[in-house]
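> forwarded from #structure-qc
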């Protein structure tokens, strides 16, 4: 007799627009997962979280993404008594509009310009060719992540750092 376990696959789209900190992001993610667990009662789940939205939590998330992904994984495991496997957590958040918080005109201009920066496709292709020359152990997950996504993540991290420096002034 052969036994098979059914594994449900779900994507939890989590809107964290307006969230202030990482704790609020984890709380909203758990709320979405709770609904999915109820809809798939009795079955183990493979879950992909897609966290998106604009807010103040963005800076904290990109500055310490590994911590918040770990906290979300732990919360999912606790909530489900181990019946959830978090396959991936995609953080696609953006900064809250900086119009009210940026007091220095020059820094505000730099932040605005950086938000609008986009690399043309030919430049991205050239960069991908150069990265492909690196040994696999050096480039790590770069070949899987997709260069446009990595560029956006780098831009988000730079924006977060600039915004936090501006806040310290």
């Amino acid at each position: 007799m052969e036994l098979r376990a059914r594994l449900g696959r779900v994507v939890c789209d989590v809107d964290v627009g307006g969230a202030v900190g990482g704790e609020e992001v984890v709380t909203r993610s758990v709320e979405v997962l709770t609904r999915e667990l109820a809809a798939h009662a009795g079955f183990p789940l493979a879950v992909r979280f897609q966290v998106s939205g604009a807010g103040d939590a963005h800076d904290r998330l990109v500055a310490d993404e590994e911590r918040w992904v770990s906290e979300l994984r732990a919360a999912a495991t606790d909530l489900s008594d181990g019946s959830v496997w978090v396959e991936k957590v995609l953080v696609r958040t953006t900064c809250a509009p900086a119009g009210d918080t940026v007091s220095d005109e020059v820094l505000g201009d730099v932040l605005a310009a950086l938000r609008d920066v986009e690399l043309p496709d030919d430049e991205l292709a050239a960069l991908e060719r150069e990265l492909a020359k690196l040994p696999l152990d050096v480039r790590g997950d770069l070949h899987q992540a997709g260069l446009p996504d990595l560029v956006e993540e780098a831009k988000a991290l730079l924006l977060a750092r600039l915004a936090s420096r501006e806040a310290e002034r």
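QC bot note: The helical segments are 22-39, 57-63, 65-80, 105-115, 121-132, 136-139, 142-145, 147-168. The beta strands are 8-15, 45-54, 84-94.
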